[in-house]
Write a structure and sequence with these properties.
This protein has 13 helices and 17 strands. The chain is α/β, with parallel strands linked by helices.
Length: 483
């Protein structure tokens, strides 16, 4: 029986169009545009200069201050610019990018790390090697994988959980990966088990993806792997949320403000595991990923393996171009994705889906009306928050109340938006309020630390004064006794 999550929504998948054709390679870009900050944490630091020639797979930027990660060239060619360009980050806002002109030769960098069997490496050495591949979480969060592995390795209990529960409508890239490249997922799981010295791994996927489940079970049987099991979860959105998946699979609740390693679980996307396998086995760093191109605004929906840095316009051309029905361009799923202003924006490591949406896919939002306190948003919230209270306090930017009502625990799944009869863009409001609350929390922490430092200084001064006074009194007594 499939495991289920708390609350959430039953949504139509809309993946039939993009999964009818096999996975195929996208056309390499003529210009690869590579943001330095396409991962959670600090931007990478360029290792190349304008005018320099680079090879496919060559490291072109090193990690900044932790957390950060490496960036590699997805083509061979020449660096023609290091400048701000529009990216999917922050809704198309410019960020610093390395721009590489493709020479079409795909000459590879053979000066990388020498090949080695992963199981003969010490776990710490394997984690260091994974870091060099520029691997990040491919489920969308883009957290540097090596940092996550190092944190997990410190836990006393460790269980690897591979997330294949692709609950967002329209997205099918993980399903296609598991269906057509299950061996990569299994190898990635084996590598992760060794990297964090865990004994067991669970691969979780939705119960409505039987073809992917069959492929995974066949790959496990072929590998003779008894440490890895496959489980199914009910196709309820957001079953693929990290905390929701951990609770449904293991019955463990990640504490508020905590991380999966707090309950002894390392959760990674199946795409991340496959990327690790390709890096360790083939010495191919993260220079491409599978992305779903779909929606009724696209001529031929498909899943493409595309080079990082490929313009979205190029991916659209590979799928036959737009149809007259296109009305919006969404990066990500229909629930958590964001609208893009245009398609001259590059694919980045965390881009899992592009929806060329028609009004049939996503109806235009109606005019916003006052909240009627119906409570539907609270009923569906998978984190048990009170979105109406967050909305109320967000309107006045009451940061203390927003923190008290758990804004920072919101996973921005969009369930509350979906059911709101007043058409209030709750998720967008919460997303915009989070940096304000985070800054408030950080400011309070700094003030608390400063107060603690001041009190410690005052206590130290008082202690020293008392010690000096005691020494003076002692000297006076000794002097009086001598007289």
């Amino acid at each position: 029986m499939a495991l289920s999550i708390h609350h959430g929504l039953r949504l139509d998948a809309h993946t039939e169009r993009s999964t009818q054709v096999p996975l195929r390679a996208a056309t390499p870009p003529a210009l690869a545009v590579l943001p330095l900050g396409q991962h959670a944490g600090s931007p990478a630091t360029p290792l190349v200069s304008v005018g320099e020639s680079v090879l496919l797979g060559q490291a072109i930027a090193r990690p900044g201050s932790e957390p950060s990660t490496w960036l590699h060239s997805p083509v061979s060619g020449k660096v023609i610019a290091i400048e701000p360009r529009a990216t999917p980050l922050h809704r198309g806002a410019p960020s610093t990018c390395i721009v590489i002109e493709n020479n079409g030769r795909d000459r590879r960098d053979d000066a990388g790390v020498a090949s080695a069997e992963f199981h003969v490496l010490a776990p710490a050495a394997l984690r260091d090697l994974i870091e060099q591949g520029g691997i990040v979480g491919l489920g969308g969060a883009m957290f540097p994988t090596a940092v996550k592995l190092s944190l997990a390795a410190r836990s006393q209990k460790r269980h690897v959980l591979l997330n294949g529960a692709e609950c967002e409508p329209y997205i099918s890239c993980d399903y296609m990966l598991m269906r057509e490249r299950a061996n990569d997922v299994v190898l990635g799981a084996q590598i992760l088990l060794h990297a964090v010295e865990a004994e067991h791994c669970t691969i979780a996927l939705e119960d409505e993806t039987p073809a992917a489940e069959r492929s995974l079970r066949a790959a496990l049987e072929a590998a003779g792997e008894a440490r890895i099991r496959v489980v199914t979860v009910a196709s309820v959105y957001p079953a693929g949320g990290e905390q929701q998946l951990i609770e449904s699979v293991f019955g463990l609740e990640v504490p508020a403000g905590g991380l999966p390693q707090d309950v002894g679980v390392l959760c990674q996307n199946v795409g991340t595991a496959a990327a690790i396998a390709r890096w360790i086995r083939d010495r191919e760093p993260l220079v491409s990923r599978i992305v779903t191109i779909t929606g009724h605004g696209i001529a031929q929906a498909a899943n493409l393996e595309a080079r990082i840095g490929t313009p979205i316009a190029g991916l659209v051309r590979d799928c036959g171009g737009y149809t007259p029905a296109v009305s919006r361009l969404i990066v990500g799923g229909s629930m958590m994705g964001v609208a893009l202003p245009h398609d001259d924006i590059p694919l980045i490591k965390g881009t899992n889906c592009i929806i060329a949406a028609s009004t049939e896919d996503l109806a235009p939002r109606g005019p916003e009306m006052p909240c009627i306190r119906c409570g539907e948003c609270s009923r569906v919230c998978p984190v048990d928050l009170l979105p109406q209270q967050l909305h109320w306090h967000g309107a006045t930017r009451d940061t203390d109340a927003l923190e008290r009502y758990g804004l920072m625990d919101c996973i921005e799944c969009g369930c509350c938006d979906y059911v709101c009869p007043s058409q209030i863009p709750l998720t967008e409001r919460f997303r915009d309020a989070k940096p304000v609350v985070a800054a408030h929390i950080a400011s309070r922490a700094r003030a608390t630390a400063a107060r603690a430092d001041f009190e410690a200084r005052e206590a130290r001064i008082s202690r020293l004064d008392a010690e000096r006074e005691a020494q003076l009194q002692k000297k006076r007594r000794e002097a009086g006794g001598t007289g």
